[in-house]
Amino acid sequence: MNIEFIIENASKIILIVAAICTLISVITEFTKGIGFLDKIPTKFQVLILSLAICVIGFFAYLSYASIAFVWYYLVAVIFAAFIVAIVCCKGWDYLFEIWARFYRKKD
Predict the structure, then answer these.
(1) Are 6 and 13 in contact (CB under 8 A)?
(2) Cα dihedral 58, 56, 43, 31 in deg (nearest 10)
(3) Rounded to an integer, what distance in angstroms lies between the CA atom of residue 66 and that of residue 92?
(4) Is residue 68, in this structure, part of any structural domain at all?
(5) Which positions, given as ranges, span the membrane (predicted)?
(6) How far is residue 18 from each of residues 14, 25, 48, 71, 86, measured CA to CA in Å?
(7) With a cut of 70, which residues of the chain have pLDDT below it?
(8) What domain count does the chain have?
(9) Is position 71 within any domain?
(10) Is residue 107 part of a domain?
(11) How much of the chain, in percent, has pLDDT values that exceed 90?
């Protein structure tokens, strides 16, 4: 996977992240008042849900597409799960602000 792949499929990637964020937000809203989940911070619950859903989705996609598992794919999915959690907790604008802080346009 390289940067050209990401640029060519950016709209699909954003759509997938948005769908996962919606799923995580709905699950969090419905389970927040249940038992011990009421006692943990919401951001922690979102992070755990993000990790679980992204990793399960990753392995489901590997199985569906008949792709061999490579350990660094899992590391990339875990990093992506943190990005999904940030979007769920703070929104797209916060993520774009972080990106704008470190991305400089070439003159």
Answers:
(1) yes
(2) 150
(3) 32
(4) yes
(5) 13-34, 46-64, 70-96
(6) 6, 10, 17, 25, 12
(7) 1-2, 104-107
(8) 1
(9) yes
(10) no
(11) 40
